[in-house]
Amino acid sequence: MTNILISGAGIAGTASAYWLRRHGHTVTVVERASAIRTGGYKVDIRGAALTVVERMGLLDAVRDRSTDMRVATTYDAKGRVVCTLDAALFGGRTGEDLEIMRGDLNELLYDLTRDDVEYVFGDSITGIAEDGTVTFERSPSRRFDLVVGADGMHSTTRRIAFGEEPGFTRDLGHYISICTVPNSLGLDREEAVHATVGRTANVYSTRRDRDAKALFMWSSEPLGHDHRDVAGQKKLLERAMDGVGWRVPALLEDVREADDFYFDSVSQIHMDRWSRGRVVLVGDAGYCASPASGQGTSLALVGAYVLAGELSGGDGLEGYERELRPFVEANQALGPTNIKGMVSGSRAALWFQLRMMRLLPRLPGRDRMIERITGPIARAANAITLKSYVE
């Protein structure tokens, strides 16, 4: 039995806690926030990640909490409907793929582990010694056999073990922001989208949400923003969206009052190795694929499963690298391609995209066109054969 510390109680952290505990390890999770994070945006679970969720016994619960989104409607600057698509097609989902709010999934994972795993909230790692002694901001130091960094793209664990972030970050030339806003559009399991050259605004409300989420994406050179300066980030968003029509000015007014504001670059993390000494990384900390990939949650779920399995019944950290890396690379490759469809880079590209969306439901080769859109995502989502590490 191994004594393991996990830094971060997001999807990667709570999923890792489940699988490591199931393999018989003693697990502690330290989380900077004062409680499990329940906010966030909608996320997809596809392919191999669905198998992981099923093996956790959570498939029915995830289905019960699905967003149940129906349609996505694109509007022009004056509020006129440009086109409407089925929500699954708009999101690139096929077959059994599921969509759930990130906070809902995190709650399910936390509830699955809270009785068997020690959670320490309101604290974070400050140092990791060669012998496994870990120091914290608030708690006394403790010794662990292994530290799992599951603390996101800006991972403190990665910085401590591998050095500063810039060498691992690959900027995709865009930014993303999302927060909760009043459902002033009266949306019912639908998305409302407005796109201009280099900027996109998306508002949606799910089955379980009385409010709405406002999501903004735009192309930009690096902004050099402070990750903890929320007021400054809101000003950067307003500057980026200045002059955009439709409902954007009113949405920006709502953003000023939001208390769950998220803002970051659309970036990926690329590393030659995910482990060093007594430290290993999982999820965004080691191989963030960016929101543009649509596969961040699936990578976290599959990564947690493979890490725990290889540590307990496989080839250890070497096995984790070998089994997971092709899957990570296939899913990271989606990001640079997908971002072009999320934020148009020119008037010609925007015109072509909107025209294709308008014509798609009536095209003679509709199924082939849809496969061109969804096929790469489906293939990446299934680009791993999962071992059966536990009965």
From TrEMBL:
Task: Name the Pfam families on file.
Answer: FAD_binding_3
Location of the FAD-binding domain? 2-312
What is the annotated signal peptide range for this record? none
Q: What would be an example GO MF term here?
A: FAD binding
Q: Which residues, by range, are in coiled-coil regions?
A: none
For this protein, the record's InterPro entries field holds: FAD-bd, FAD/NAD-bd_sf, FAD_aromatic-hydroxylase
This chain's protein is named: 2-polyprenyl-6-methoxyphenol hydroxylase-like FAD-dependent oxidoreductase
Which species is this UniProt entry from? Answer: Nonomuraea fuscirosea
Taxonomic lineage is:
Bacteria, Bacillati, Actinomycetota, Actinomycetes, Streptosporangiales
